[in-house]
TrEMBL record:
The lineage of its organism: Bacteria, Pseudomonadati, Bacteroidota, Sphingobacteriia, Sphingobacteriales. Pfam families: DUF386. Signal peptide: none annotated. It comes from Mucilaginibacter panaciglaebae. It comes from the Bacteria. This is YhcH/YjgK/YiaL family protein.
Amino acid sequence: MIIDTLKNAERYYTLHSGFKTAFEYLNSTNLAALENGVIELGDGIRVIVSNDPGRTREAAAKIFECHNQNIDIQVCIHGLETMGWKPRADCQQVEVPYNPEKDYMFYNDEPDTYFSLKNGQYVIFFPEDVHAPMIGEGLIKKLVVKVPVYSIL
């Protein structure tokens, strides 16, 4: 897991062949003006835009998720979003087995750590990062960039 601000995104270009495409899009787009939906960037990289009410920790823990096929770059655009995190290796209670068509698996474990993102900050979740997003109050506008794992350098 990596937490940083968009102004430092260039530091991570070499970690994955798709990160440069993702971060150049994020840094050249008026993110606040984007409408809810999905934007295809090519090479399997897609951006999911949402503007939804925050959840309680309890509600977010019900979707304590991880992915096998995609890396998530989750960017806070507006609001304050808290997320829970735990290493996948430490999770023991599978709630929903892995679904390869939807690329998710849910655990019934509790997060070890909580952290918050504010406008312009992001987190990168790799397949080994189980996460509970969208904890907060009021509307949270965010982007989730799905970057396929298969193209890792």
